[in-house]
Amino acid sequence: MIVKGGYPYYGEAIGILLFDERRYPMVPGNVGNASTYDFPVRLKVVKNLKWYPPPEDEWEASPPDEVELLIEAAKELEAEGVRAVVTCCGFFSAVQDVIAKSVNIPVFTSPLILLPMLLRLISPAKSIGVFTASRPHLTEGFISAGGNPDMNRIKVFGAETSSEFMATHMGGTRTELDIDLLEEQIVDISVEFVKNNPDTGMILLECTTFPTFAASIQQHTGLPIVDYISFINFIFDTVVCGRYKGFS
User: Residue 244 has what DSSP assignment?
Assistant: First the structure.
């Protein structure tokens, strides 16, 4: 058997692009916590990447600086040998196509790009609740960037009422996190949303922090939950196919 070399690192199929200078805790379940995964990942802080770029139709004569930073970082990860690139924030849906065409490996920027497919999985009478870090920030442009899903069946709700989340995320500067309090607040927000929207057939978690609480949200709502991690696991299985064991 002949194996291919030429890379500086091996055994890390998934490369993850991270914001620069973010200091909030990333607990297991967060996209940026390496222990979240059952396989090695390569974490890469993108120097000077402080925020996400707006949807492409809001760009001026040239793409925002963040776009070039992400493209170059994705290329670096590819050159280092990863087999797929993911990002650390669901708002990067706006640059899915731009980054994907800049490299020769799969790119996954946001769970939002899954919406057209997910809508087909549930009854047309049902809607999908998109739980985002910030409802005011998640404009239709970020959602439509994922493939123009039926907006009539998408209902967005955010974490603005979570004091613990806002203290550490979305501009909050505190570096200590009460994980039990945050879980309680995230679950309460989800339960309240479903109570007010009984046609909800599924919840999609946009934020990279929320997968930590996916099981608790499901326990209290009884709904299917889709998040970053479930699809990153899917991507890993597509670029590192396992061999089946059993008997017949």
Answer: P
Which residue ranges make up each domain of the chain? 14-110+232-239, 111-226
Joined tokens for residue 206? 């946009």
Among 56, 34, 148, 52, smallest CA distance to 101 is for: 56
- Mark out the alpha helices in 94-136 (DSSP H runs): 96-100, 115-121
User: What are the average pLDDT values for consecutive 10-residue runs of the chain, which has 248 residues?
Assistant: 86 96 92 97 96 88 92 97 96 95 97 96 98 94 86 96 92 90 98 98 97 98 97 97 92
- CATH architecture of structural domain 14-110+232-239: 3-Layer(aba) Sandwich (3.40)
Within 23-127, residue ranges assigned H as helices are: 65-79, 96-100, 115-121
111-226 is classed CATH 3.40.50.1860: yes
Question: How crowded is residue 7: how many other Cβ atoms within 10 Å of its Cβ?
Answer: 12
How far is the C-alpha of 198 from the C-alpha of 216, rounded, in Å? 19
Tell me if domain 14-110+232-239 and domain 111-226 are identical in fold: yes
